[in-house]
């Protein structure tokens, strides 16, 4: 269950009524592009794709020997799987993310792994990502050196259905390859094989994850009053003059979720609009309670330049009572309370304290942290982002601003020797 | 070696001359408080404290049995040790940070640890941090249940020299206790036992760390032209109208450094000034190259509302050449290059692309990522922050804005049943 709370934004229901035509028009404009080639709306259909899920499950069952899973991928190819694996891993398989190009940690990783028990998953939609290809050269070389011809069983690629270097490699060498559907971009790909394959090895409940995502789809298309993503999109639209959108999550298991949201929000919406104006707000990742001891001082007394989203679980999966320990009477006020109750009290206290400080803040309550609620939340946030693209007049599905960096990298790489 | 580069901010040397009186006055005002009770400037002296370092080393040598190190602490008690341990751990001791209060991960951790091989370090300046006390109840109970009277050897506290619950516990039970000097606050405590104790168990080179920090002290007090912290403080001062201060680090080993900086900057400077005005800029954590695929689109095409600091290493400690792998001719442009060269090319390309987009950006170059350069960088950033406190008219060493949250937490905790 995902629930929006706007108790500290009292005029919101009037705003919702006033903006109904705008919101419904934005939704209509978005849905009108569904199925159009190049519209990149394939993420809407991923929660229904049970055939891919079956294939992935079969592959996981065929490879029970895997003890270490190395994901070579960066940005949208790593942030989603990492967030979900950290939350729901249950199989004992160890995960390693090579989403960087620093030599020392990669050297250390290669020394620590047993190649016979390692599965390498190279993930890139285009197949041309420099960081991923660099990592792949190192791991391919390492697998071949240790396993000879058997290396092919230890490398699986997730990439475009037809084009690019990874697809070509898989074709030439007979590697297992999973497809990222043509109409699904990197930051919208967590429910494609990009996320599902690692999560199958992590032992996460993928049926529940997709079921939750289907719930978000339902709500996205529902009448305005029940359409959560239209409502949260409006919240961001009404506060677009505030430069910073804080995304603060009260769950240690979800510690990598803010980074996934940052990419989704920033790379989708930080754009020139049709008139060439610079639009977008800057997502700021935050965790509760850690950031009560880091960022909340600024949120309370610093500039009122933020819209804050608090993601708060309403109940634990399994709680821990705090034992009365005679040696520590100073902590007596905690005896007999539970850990989750402390967590919840801190979240509610922060929510209220931020509102009292004059910041704009709302909450998304999760009934609990589970694959079902997080599947729902992820797909919800994708809809929110897509709606905001319509409202702000930008294409939420491209990233023209990163091209210059790629060209310059190549130039620096060639030029320096 | 730490080096400031302002090539894309051409007017900076004139600005430095024009602001010389202001900067020198700020430094004088800060240094005039040195030694005053309650000024909280003890962090300036930590790099010279070799006696504490000796004690910590002795303690580490007396406890060679430790295989798992559990740090109970949050905010300034965890962010610094975590950043440095992730960068420089070399001993094989496994580190676990209980800097949260979510029941499920703590339950899992307790089940996975061998109490006979585990050292628990409870860290809180005040000794009153609710999250840390909650964790301590659980771990104390667990140690006693498994070890009986021997539990006392497995718990060490780092806290105020005299007051608070942790100091009292240590006194009553005869536990080993390390002192956070009275004049050192949490977010300035990384070079006190807060950081040094875990890092001794991690096997990091603490002499080099403190030597680097002494270099920053030297520069802080040097004539303006050589005073790196005064210069970077001025950069932030000149851009204080921009709401966002991006701190982007091109090093996977330093992946937790941005979170440490966020606390230092936000909690020190996000304040009401003497006239009651809300001041402070919001630090935004970023990593290279990961965020080229996440935030750089927004940095390039979104609003020009940021000052960006790029932290870039100039050479690797140990590089990795990219092997020419016949199976992957599409990556031919990388054959024979090294991984670090790719990293450096990406950093330089991003630096230039951000400047060309019209963002305000400067670089801090590290000769390499080592305890020496990072000790230097950390202490440099503490000086920068302290100088900014003077320039912005706020007390960089208190955190009044978090008190309401603490009171409300207690109320919610008591009230709900």
From TrEMBL, chains A, B:
The active site consists of: 267 (proton donor), 293, 406
Record's keyword annotation contains Cytoplasm: yes
Q: Where in the cell is it found?
A: Cytoplasm
Judged by the first EC level, this protein's enzyme class is isomerase
Under Gene Ontology molecular function, one entry of this record is: isomerase activity
Mainly resides where? cytoplasm
Name the keywords, alphabetized.
Cytoplasm, Gluconeogenesis, Glycolysis, Isomerase
Where does this protein act, in terms of pathway?
Carbohydrate biosynthesis; gluconeogenesis; Carbohydrate degradation; glycolysis; D-glyceraldehyde 3-phosphate and glycerone phosphate from D-glucose: step 2/4
The reactions it catalyses are: alpha-D-glucose 6-phosphate = beta-D-fructose 6-phosphate
Q: What EC numbers are recorded for this enzyme? A: 5.3.1.9
Taken from the record, one Pfam family name reads PGI
Instruction: State whether keyword Ribosomal protein applies.
Output: no
For this chain, the family text in UniProt reads:
Belongs to the GPI family.
Could you tell me what this protein is called?
Glucose-6-phosphate isomerase
Q: Upper lineage ranks?
A: Bacteria, Thermotogati, Deinococcota, Deinococci, Thermales
GN (gene name): pgi
């Amino acid at each position: 269950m995902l629930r929006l709370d706007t108790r500290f934004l009292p005029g919101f229901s009037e705003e919702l009524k006033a903006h109904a035509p705008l919101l419904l028009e934005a939704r209509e404009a978005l849905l009108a592009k569904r199925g159009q080639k190049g519209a990149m709306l394939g993420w809407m259909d991923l929660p229904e794709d049970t055939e891919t899920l079956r294939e992935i499950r079969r592959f996981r069952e065929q490879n029970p020997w895997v003890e270490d899973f190395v994901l070579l991928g960066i940005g949208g190819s790593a942030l989603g799987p990492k967030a979900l694996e950290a939350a729901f891993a249950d199989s004992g398989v160890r995960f390693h993310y090579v989403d960087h190009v620093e030599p020392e940690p990669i050297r250390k990783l290669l020394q620590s792994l047993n190649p016979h028990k390692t599965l390498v998953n190279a993930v890139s939609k285009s197949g041309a990502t420099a960081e991923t290809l660099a990592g792949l050269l190192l791991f391919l070389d390492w697998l071949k050196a240790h396993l000879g011809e058997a290396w092919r069983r230890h490398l699986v690629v997730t990439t475009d259905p037809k084009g690019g270097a990874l697809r070509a490699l898989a074709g030439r060498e007979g590697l297992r390859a999973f497809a990222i559907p043509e109409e699904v971009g990197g930051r919208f790909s967590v429910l494609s094989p990009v996320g599902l394959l690692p999560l199958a090895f992590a032992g996460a409940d993928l049926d529940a994850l997709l079921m939750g995502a289907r719930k978000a789809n339902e709500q996205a298309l529902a009448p305005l009053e029940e359409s959560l993503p239209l409502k949260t999109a409006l919240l961001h639209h009404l506060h677009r003059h505030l430069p910073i959108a804080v995304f603060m999550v009260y769950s240690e298991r979800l510690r990598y979720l803010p980074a996934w949201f940052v990419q989704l929000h920033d790379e989708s919406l930080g754009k020139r609009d049709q008139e060439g104006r610079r639009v977008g707000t800057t997502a700021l990742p935050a965790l509760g309670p850690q950031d009560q001891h880091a960022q909340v001082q600024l949120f309370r007394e610093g500039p009122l330049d933020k819209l804050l989203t608090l993601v708060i679980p309403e109940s634990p999966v399994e709680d821990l009572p705090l034992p009365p320990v005679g040696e520590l009477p100073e902590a007596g006020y905690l005896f007999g309370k539970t850990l989750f109750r402390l967590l919840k009290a801190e979240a509610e206290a922060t929510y209220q304290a931020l509102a009292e400080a004059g910041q704009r803040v709302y909450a998304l309550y999760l009934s609990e942290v589970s694959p079902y609620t997080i599947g729902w939340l992820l797909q919800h946030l994708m809809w929110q982002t897509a709606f905001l693209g319509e409202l702000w007049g930008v294409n939420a599905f491209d990233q023209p601003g990163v091209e210059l960096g790629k060209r310059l990298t190549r130039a620096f790489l060639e030029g320096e020797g």
